[in-house]
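Sanity check

After download, print the first record. It should look like this:
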Amino acid sequence: MDYIVYAIPVFILLIATEVIVTVVRKKDYYRFSDAINSLSAGMISITSGILTKVVSVTIYTGLFSVFGLWEMSVESLWVWVVGFVFYDLCYYWNHRLGHEINVLWAAHAVHHQSEEYNLTTALRQSSSGFIFGWLFYVPMAVVGVPAVVFFTVGLINLLYQFWVHTRHVPKLGWFEWFFVTPSNHRVHHAKNRRYLDKNYGGVFILWDRLFGTFKEEDEQYEPIRYGTLKPLRSWNPLWANLHLYAGMWQDCKATSRWQEKLTLWFRKTGYRPSDISTPMKMPDIHAYENYQPTVVRPLMVYTAFHFVLMIIATLALMGSYHLMPMWFNTLWVVVFIVQLVVIGWLLEKNQKLVALEAGRFATVAAALCITHQQLAVPASLWGLLCTLAVVSLLVLNRIQYNDSRQAHLQKSQEI
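Expected structure tokens:
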């Protein structure tokens, strides 16, 4: 079982607390669809991690056993302290180059796509970072940091980063000099020109001060705009993970130069071959509104209900996948991705809402049929699921009908 499953309820409680504080303070730090999209990306990340974490584990343990200069003792406190600091240094370079190299940014950009900055942004994680991320931690394996130390301090590092994704905490005095805080991490997520590509540390901000990438938040400067310079403008969490790879692949096919085909992946972030594009210019980040397709309140309620069911299902999968065969986990990860993609489409007001939702329920039903021996689904639960599907489709159809009728009436009044 993945220990992160114990942290998920805590994350949800803290997010709910931040939402309440936001409402009480009359701030606009949350938007429903944006938060759902961030959480969806995070759910895809942790569930797909069931399948991909074996890559990281295998590579690290293999490098440790073959190239490790010596084996440090896990019983020594200094090994854990050194491992924790060493991990954060490696993370700094992983994070920094993730902003500076095309193919690494394609993975990391997912975390920056939200145009809001709140605790749900912390959970908006990449599903493809495992492809190259392991490279930056090779030094730890070579010097002999045991695997149990490596993965434990990595988890602690990740958990620490959750709390810094908030706009409610001001600057923290002397703490700002040594540690990553909400203030200096807000700078990192900003797309204002003066803040771009700064403050990469995970726990310690000292690396940024040492390597010249530190920037202090200036509260007198123009308001921070969050997100990426080229906005995603979609609530599809799968496309959020794939769209930059797709763009580079299109450039690879379009360019006539073989050198470009091979190297564009590893060039500076944003680079495109000169025979198909001109260099990207800094856009006016204040010239457009944040992406927010209108969603009627009944559809929000409907989506929220089914999203809560997805959270419960995610907890169940994360708590039991170690007991199931790989084919079972693979199937359900795919099913979960389908569920979250459709939920994203609902929030974009696609005209085929009922058909999409019917397809989503059909996907779950098919997966339950295939895995019924492992799950041993009782007949009563089948009946409940069928009832839920039918009622949901009827409710969604009514929501869509009322919305269309209201839009028609408004159009008639305008005429």
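If your output differs, re-run the checksum step. Summary of this record's structure: The mean pLDDT is 93.
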